[in-house]
Amino acid sequence: MYYEIFKIICKFILVVFFRLKSEGRENIPKKTNYIVIANHTSFLDPVIVSVCFVEKIYWLAARDLYKIPFLKWFFNKSGAFSVGSASKYGESFLNSGKNVGVFPEGICSRDGKLKTFRTGAVLLAYKTGRPIVPCIISGAYEALPWGNKIPKFKKLKLKIGKPIYFLKETEEKINDIYLQKGVETLKNVMEELFYG
């Protein structure tokens, strides 16, 4: 309930004041749940992605944010879970038909450019066999970059790429080499969307 109300309010604000647009919604899988990944340059990012997707997305949130009482309350109400619980809850959520959102860079980019990717999204994909839906957000860095508290009304856009499929693997087979290959695949796709 809280999620839907918050989503409606945020969608109105983002469309009216930030002229939010999205493209590539036809790439969102219709027959399975999925893992959403996006570049991360602003606190606006999870909101931007969530309002452009019809289905609910359960986001991984940095553990430090749970130290802020209001954010902790909101995350609990909206279904987010901490990064430290990613393997435990992310796999469970995906196996139960829920969609999970991950920022593969882990933290906000300070200059708006793509940074090094972590292995969390790839690990969840290998463990569950669910596709990864890559997204690129543009305009969020200009609207509310890291460290700023007052947003500027800049145009926002979400570009949704074609899903990336990884074969489901056993725990024994998911080693560092497997994970690194998966990360390289994600980075290549995201860079093509980002710079293309």
- Give the biggest sheet: 7 strands, mixed
**What is the helix content?**
25-40%
Strand content: 5-15%
Q: Class by helix and strand content?
A: alpha/beta
Number of helices: 7
What's the total count of β strands? Answer: 7
Strand ordering within the main sheet: 1-7-6-2-5-3-4
Remind me, CATH topology? Glycerol-3-phosphate (1)-acyltransferase
Please tell me the total number of domains: 1
Radius of gyration: 16 Å
List the defining traits of the structure above:
196 residues; alpha/beta; Glycerol-3-phosphate (1)-acyltransferase; seven-stranded mixed β-sheet; 7 strands; 15% strand
SSE topology:
Elements: H1 2-17, E1 21-23, E2 35-38, H2 45-52, E3 57-61, H3 69-78, E4 81-82, H4 86-95, E5 99-102, H5 120-128, E6 132-138, H6 140-143, E7 157-160, H7 176-195
Parallel strand pairs: 1-7, 2-5, 2-6, 3-4, 3-5
Antiparallel strand pairs: 6-7
Helix pairs in contact: 1-2, 4-5
Please tell me about this protein's structure.
It contains seven helices and seven strands, in the order αββαβαβαβαβαβα. By secondary structure, it is an alpha/beta fold. The chain has one domain (2-195): Glycerol-3-phosphate (1)-acyltransferase (3-Layer(aba) Sandwich). A seven-stranded mixed beta sheet has the order 1-7-6-2-5-3-4, with helices on both faces. Strand 3 (57-61), helix 3 and strand 4 (81-82) form a beta-alpha-beta unit. The longest helix has 20 residues, at 176-195. The radius of gyration is 16 Å and the shape is globular. The model has no long low-confidence stretch (mean pLDDT 88).
Short description:
This protein has 196 residues and is α/β, with parallel strands linked by helices.
